[in-house]
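ugh ok so i messed up the first submission bc i forgot one of the chains. this is the corrected input, ALL of the components this time, i swear. 228 residues overall. if the numbers dont match what u have on ur side tell me asap before i send this to the collaborators (the ones from the other lab, u know who)
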Amino acid sequence: MPSRQVVAKELADILKVIAHPDRIRLIEELRAGELDVNTLASRLNLPGPRVSQHLSLLRAHRLVEERRDGRRHVYHLNQPELAAWLVSGVDFVEGRFDKSTHSRITDARRLWAN
Amino acid sequence: MPSRQVVAKELADILKVIAHPDRIRLIEELRAGELDVNTLASRLNLPGPRVSQHLSLLRAHRLVEERRDGRRHVYHLNQPELAAWLVSGVDFVEGRFDKSTHSRITDARRLWAN
DNA sequence: TCTACAGCTGCAAATACTTGCAATTGAGCA
DNA sequence: TGCTCAATTGCAAGTATTTGCAGCTGTAGA
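and heres the new structure output, hopefully the right one now
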């Protein structure tokens, strides 16, 4: 199978993993450093098992890694540049908003820029 | 709903649209300029209706635009930088390959670099 | 008008994702 | 050992995507 096809498939695979609102937010939360599952769950306001499943998917694709600290499971981004890359992708979202909602983007970009 | 959440949702939506091997290849084919549906179908070696459906999805999300030229439907990227952004995302694929298949990435990157 | 070519649309079957909830594992501590 | 907190796993129901194929629309040219 030709290389472009292989790489397109792998890239599609990774994008599919990232392409979920909760998982994008997990990645964004982890941009600044490591956090445990509980903290993530309460920051995103999601049930624990759900966060756990998202994390296990991200883990299976090596986007995050886990570390144990006592009874806590602490997660961090495997490739921290991923978060920056994602934020830069927000540019391509702009066309989708009408003018009134448009400020949300600059807003979010500012929050994520930190 | 908080901005980060809105933007995460929109970004997820766009990524979901992009996250398909065929559609990634379509975007890559279009990086250099416009092409009609037939050309795309034969370059990707896919049945016409399939390419048509992928394009209509990309079109619905404003990632591509259509132009008519006689009986041809000619497509082009709405935001050409999208292709470059995608290619830069290939970096995050690298961790997934073992050493033997690793050369495919440099390979594909070279091909996509044009 | 008739034909051919270029694409699009619709629909059903197969497949994959998401979500909620209950049950389970595993580490620390009394 | 027995209890509890932190997370993970498993599974079923609901929802969305993908794929193949048949049939349709619209344009150009004889």
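quick check: The mean pLDDT of chain A is 92. that seems consistent at least. The helical segments of chain A are 3-18, 21-30, 37-44, 48-60, 81-89, 99-113.
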